[in-house]
Design a protein that fits this description.
The protein has 214 residues and is of the alpha/beta class. Helix content is 39%, strand content 16%. The chain contains 11 helices and 7 strands. The strands form 2 sheets. A 5-stranded parallel β-sheet has the order 2-1-3-4-6. It has a two-stranded antiparallel sheet with strand order 5-7.
């Protein structure tokens, strides 16, 4: 497989999986690989209590087999399954930051372009069942959406190998005039509190066209 060439590797947890309907809709002539595992992150110290994350965390093995031009990954799960106790939490975050730096260095060494996607708006307002049951509004303030990612933003500032990596902010594209809509007059955009419906993925993720179509 050494000579196999694929334009893009798309890797991460379910927030990368939800890009699949959008990418499929592009009818791209190039090879695009999806390497995903729900509830996982690329840093080896992150452990999901329900299943292992080896397919993501053993990324170096894949890079030995396939040559990629681009890698698109997510930073969404950076703080998943961290302990609640402050000292332990901070210690584990420092470990993940160091490991993610190693990941970025490996990717930059082996791949021409690396893209990191931050988190999308989320919350119970986006969950159709909860929103209807509780009579929740059809939008949330952008400031609220961003407040869910303060740990991510702090970690991003500490990464030493983030230079020459393109960091993509979905909130910038999915929210307008300070509001993040949860639905229109016809349907909810998400299937639960933090995952897009396929039709909305196709519609909303067009801001990524430059990555997959060029």
């Amino acid at each position: 497989m050494q000579d196999l060439f694929a334009v893009s590797l798309v890797m991460g947890a379910s927030h990368i999986e939800q890009l699949y309907p959008y990418v499929e809709s592009l009818n791209n002539e190039y090879n695009i690989y999806f390497l995903t595992q729900s509830g996982c992150f690329v840093t080896p110290s992150m452990k999901n209590p329900k299943w292992n994350c080896d397919n993501l965390q053993n990324y170096e093995k894949l890079l030995e087999e396939v040559k990629f031009e681009k890698v698109v990954t997510s930073f969404y799960s950076f703080n998943s399954y961290l302990p609640n106790e402050r000292t332990e939490r901070d210690e584990e975050k420092r470990g993940r930051i160091k490991e993610y730096d190693n990941y970025l260095n490996t990717m930059k060494t082996n791949v021409s372009k690396v893209f990191v996607i931050m988190g999308e708006p989320k919350g119970e307002e986006f969950d159709p069942t909860l929103a209807i049951r509780k009579g929740l509004p059809n939008s949330i303030p952008e400031t609220k959406a961003r407040s869910d990612y303060t740990e991510h933003e702090d970690a991003l500032k500490q990464l030493k190998n983030i230079e020459h990596v393109e960091v993509i902010d979905p909130i910038k594209h999915l929210c307008k005039d300070g509001l993040c809509k949860t639905r229109d007059e016809k349907a909810f955009f998400y299937r639960d509190y933090n995952h897009m419906r396929p039709w909305y993925s196709i519609k909303a993720n067009s801001y990524l066209d430059a990555i997959f179509l060029t």
